[in-house]
Write a structure and sequence with these properties.
Elements: H1 2-5, H2 8-33, H3 41-63, H4 70-94
Helix pairs in contact: 2-3, 3-4
């Protein structure tokens, strides 16, 4: 039980980075409509790599943003798989020690 308590900061960080990605996707869509200064695409991929792929994907679907960009259509789901693998490895390393 004490091992699972050590992972709660990672869970909170995961929620925060996904919320940030989701909100940034919406903000970038808003800026695209108003012809304002945009968020560089590399930042979406950096944040998605670091754990925010679910938020980026949900933002893409919710705001219908970047859905015609091949790099996003294939890249974000691949990074989501990377995030799931990373969570699995961290979980099996810390939670399921025998």
């Amino acid at each position: 039980m004490s091992d699972s308590l050590n992972l709660w900061p990672l869970g909170v960080a995961y929620l925060i980075i996904n919320a940030i990605c989701f909100l940034l996707m919406g903000w970038d869509k808003s800026r695209a409509r108003s012809k304002g200064r945009r968020i560089p695409e590399k930042w979406f991929f950096i944040l998605a790599f670091l754990g925010g792929a679910l938020g980026a994907w949900l933002g893409m679907q919710s705001f219908r943003h970047k859905t015609k960009h091949t790099t996003f259509v294939f890249g974000i789901p691949l990074l989501l798989l990377w995030n799931v693998l990373l969570i699995y490895v961290l979980g099996s390393t810390f939670l399921f020690k025998a």
